[in-house]
Write a structure and sequence with these properties.
The structure holds 2 protein chains of 2 kinds. Helices cover 75% and strands 0% of the residues of chain A. By secondary structure, chain A is mainly α. The chains are: A mainly alpha, B mainly alpha.
Chain lengths: 289, 307
């Protein structure tokens, strides 16, 4: 055997090894990622006695919908889910409408005194603001206007961090569009606003949809602000309802598993709808995956 | 940028009223104005209001007037042991969780770079944890950590290791929180790094290979510098999220046992609502806001993210 073939055999062995390691890692990552999600789903379909089984019952042997009945029919989790949905939709509409216009303006127009850079930067920094920081003024503000415990208050509060997100996302999508098409429309007699409305906006539709779905997800998942602003099931959202069943004395495992799993289902569906935009969405438009 | 001559020309050629023409001329301001005004109202106003609250003693009784106390609330930050504990816990959590997520995520991305690039479906599956409601993640891990019938203790038992109280144990509580956070957020780093690796240019690597550079050298001299902007974004977003950690702690430990997982957000919440001292809570909030602004500004300026 010549030296060359020995080296070749070596590097092939190395490649096989790396390939094997990679596949095993993917497998391990998948198991670790999916098991907790599977586990909450599995427990939501078990009778209480099977949830407490030692050793754990890996597959529900006596599947039941009892906890779904408890949570969504007997207790007001359907109401919580509806509140979550309405608040998420309201926030998304406000954020996407204004965020799209602002994102377009920041992507296309020039401003005096470096405003473009400064304003972009400032909008991004409002996204960085921890929500706990604004709860005290928001609480007092909503209290003053008698808005505590309303869905509108939640929409206002959620807009504070969804609007900067939507602005940055849409800015990044508009920056990717060729400006020539809008220029052509203006030469053909369209107004500047018309070029935005009839040319840029339709082209940015996939980005618009992705941004909207991200806003829905962010609002649907929010917990802290809702915890402070809402007090009764009239306006409480799904995460608050779930947390309310984890008390100091007992935890209603079946019920919270059912509600928790149901809270995850739409998110997983959404994640698959926007899968091509996920990296960009999660990095506020900074990384174009 | 559009040529302004073209803009004015088009505007002059268009029929329409004076208002329409005025709107068209100031379009760049009008399109930006709603967002700027809303965000001013929702961020600047609360911040200013918080300064006002922080220099007062606010009674839980809404009929009593606020009592001006000057810098007292800020002075308390220096002597309040609970605040120091919360600050320490937040720091430990942020440093350990984000470092772990970063190393795991980058390592996985480097290993899987060639195998997973095109598998959008697989990537989406791996991305699921970070999209889930944090409350659902928290109860899922609560179920796994449960000392009596939880899965983790079952694994410990099978391995012949001592059973633990996990989130209920003084020494393991913070660890448990970090594990749950790492589970949820490592995929974030992983996918961002994967996106970064996919966009690396090919030529420098060919040149380096010709020069006989080892893959280790190539990693330090080429891959890491090229990835720097993506790494910066990923770390910035993760650190900002870690500093505001609330949901996981609220559900999993409630800050206990023995305040071992009491983080800043949770402490502010407790001061404001359980101890009914919004003035002091405002002072702590301002501290957190200050730290956040300093950190994120430093990051963004350094990495020129606003470009």
């Amino acid at each position: 055997m010549t030296i060359a073939t020995t080296i070749q055999a070596h590097s092939r062995a190395r490649e096989v090894f790396i390939r094997l390691a990679a596949y095993l890692t993917i497998l391990a990552a998948l198991v670790i990622t999916l098991f907790p999600v599977y586990w909450i789903a599995a427990n939501s379909f078990k009778f209480d006695i099977d949830i407490f089984a030692v050793p754990p019952e890996w597959l529900p042997r006596n599947p039941t919908l009892k906890h779904y009945d408890e949570a969504f029919i007997q207790r007001p989790f359907l109401r919580y889910a509806l509140n979550s949905f309405l608040v998420a939709v309201g926030t998304t509409i406000v954020s996407v409408v204004f965020g799209t216009m602002a994102g377009y303006a920041l992507a296309r127009f020039s401003y005096p005194w470096q405003w473009r850079k400064q304003i972009s930067f400032w909008i991004l920094s409002t996204r960085m603001m921890p929500p706990i920081v604004s709860i005290i003024p928001l609480y007092l503000f909503f209290n003053y206007f008698d808005m505590l415990n309303t869905k509108s208050a939640l929409i206002v509060a959620y807009t504070a961090f969804n609007l900067p997100f939507a602005t940055w996302m849409m800015k990044s999508y508009f920056q990717d569009l060729p400006v020539e098409l809008e220029e052509a429309a203006i030469v053909d007699g369209d107004t500047r606003w018309g070029a935005f409305l009839h040319v840029a906006l339709p082209l940015a539709r996939p980005g618009l949809a992705a941004t909207a779905i991200f806003c829905l997800i962010i609002s649907w998942n929010e917990f802290l602000l809702s915890l402070i602003i809402t007090l009764t099931e009239q306006s409480q959202t799904l995460p608050i309802g779930i947390a309310g069943r984890v008390t100091q004395y007992s935890t209603y495992w079946g019920e919270i598993s059912a509600a928790g799993f149901m809270a995850c289902v739409p998110i997983v569906i959404f994640a698959f709808i926007v899968q091509k935009h996920l990296v960009r969405g999660l990095s506020l438009g900074a990384v174009k995956g | 940028m559009l040529k302004s001559e073209k803009e004015t020309l088009a505007a002059q050629l268009r029929p329409g009223g004076g208002l329409e023409r005025w709107a068209e001329r100031h379009l760049r301001f009008l399109m930006l104005a709603p967002t700027v005004l809303i965000l001013l109202g929702l961020t600047i106003f609360p911040s200013l209001y918080m300064f006002y609250a922080a220099v007062h003693k606010i009674s839980p009784n809404p009929d009593l007037p606020w009592e001006f106390v000057g810098a007292d609330n800020f002075a308390r930050l220096l002597s309040d042991a609970q605040f120091h504990v919360a600050l320490w816990n937040t720091t430990v959590f942020t440093v350990v969780a984000v470092t772990t997520e970063f190393l795991l995520g980058l390592g996985l991305a480097l290993l899987l770079d060639k195998f997973i690039r095109r598998l959008t479906f697989l990537k989406t599956v791996l991305m699921v944890p970070m999209m889930l409601p944090p409350v659902a993640v928290a109860i899922t891990w609560k179920l796994i950590y449960e000392p009596q019938f939880g899965v983790l203790n079952e694994i410990m038992y099978r391995l012949g290791l001592p059973l633990q109280a996990w989130a209920g144990d003084v020494n393991l509580a913070m660890f448990s929180i970090i594990v749950a956070d790492v589970w949820q957020w490592t995929p974030f780093i992983f996918l961002l790094m994967l996106a970064g690796l996919a966009s690396l240019p090919v030529e420098p690597y060919e040149a380096a290979a010709l020069d006989g550079a080892s893959s280790w050298r190539q990693f330090w001299d080429l891959t890491l510098p090229f990835l720097k902007p993506v790494i910066a974004i990923a770390l910035l977003l993760r650190v900002m999220d870690a500093l505001r950690l609330f949901d996981l702690v609220f559900i999993l430990t409630g800050g206990g046992p023995a305040d071992r997982t009491k983080v800043l957000s949770l402490y502010i919440y407790q001061v404001a609502y359980r101890f009914a001292d919004p003035g002091y809570a405002a002072a702590i909030s301002l501290f957190v806001l200050f730290v956040t602004i300093v950190l994120s500004t430093w990051f963004m300026k350094r990495m020129r993210l606003a470009e």
